[in-house]
């Protein structure tokens, strides 16, 4: 039983490490996306409206990322506590069962956090797409306005000529 418990604890520790690595990769990807979004906003010379919009997006994403990082740190601390507890509780199968349950709960929390990160990434992509569409619409409206202004100027000129002729 002890050997079996010992093997199971080692398996759980390995599983926890894999989950931690996956979580760190997700956090890195999220931070990288935030950085890319910031770089995009710096590299393009668009209207002030877009800059403030992107800035607000970055702030929102940053605050969510910070919250997720805090949750991640809390989970990592709990995982470390569980590792420490598992080393001292190898003799007790009851404690091992409790650790298994806690490990499962932590795994579920990690999965939820990863899902949240994916949703945030999708939300950021959706907002970026919306921002690009709004910029295109603005540019089209500017072209229409310029066309209307040119038509108006031409009509005024024609009317003045007609007035002079009359």
UniProtKB/TrEMBL annotation:
Keywords in alphabetical order: Coiled coil
GO cellular component, one term: cytoplasm
GO biological process: cytoplasmic microtubule organization; cytoskeleton-dependent intracellular transport
Coiled coil: 58-165
Keyword Transferase: no
Keyword Repressor: no
GO MF, one annotated term: dynein light intermediate chain binding
PANTHER family: HOOK PROTEINS, PROTEIN DAPLE
The protein, known as: DAPLE protein
UniProt source species: Setophaga kirtlandii
Upper taxonomic lineage: Eukaryota, Metazoa, Chordata, Craniata, Vertebrata
């Amino acid at each position: 039983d002890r050997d079996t418990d010992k093997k199971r604890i080692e398996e759980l520790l390995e599983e926890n490490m894999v989950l931690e690595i996956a979580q760190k990769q997700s956090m890195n990807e999220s931070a990288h996306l935030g950085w890319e979004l910031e770089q995009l906003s710096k590299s393009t010379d668009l209207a002030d409206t877009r800059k403030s919009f992107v800035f607000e997006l970055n702030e929102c994403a940053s605050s969510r990322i910070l919250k997720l990082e805090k949750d991640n740190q809390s989970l990592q601390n709990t995982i470390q506590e569980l590792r420490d507890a598992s080393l001292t509780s190898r003799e007790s199968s009851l404690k091992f069962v409790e650790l298994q349950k806690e490990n499962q709960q932590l795994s579920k929390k990690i999965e939820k956090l990863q899902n949240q990160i994916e949703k945030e990434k999708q939300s950021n992509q959706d907002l970026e797409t919306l921002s690009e569409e709004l910029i295109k619409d603005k540019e089209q409206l500017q072209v229409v306005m310029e066309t209307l202004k040119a038509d108006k100027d031409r009509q005024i000129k024609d009317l003045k000529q007609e007035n002079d002729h009359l």
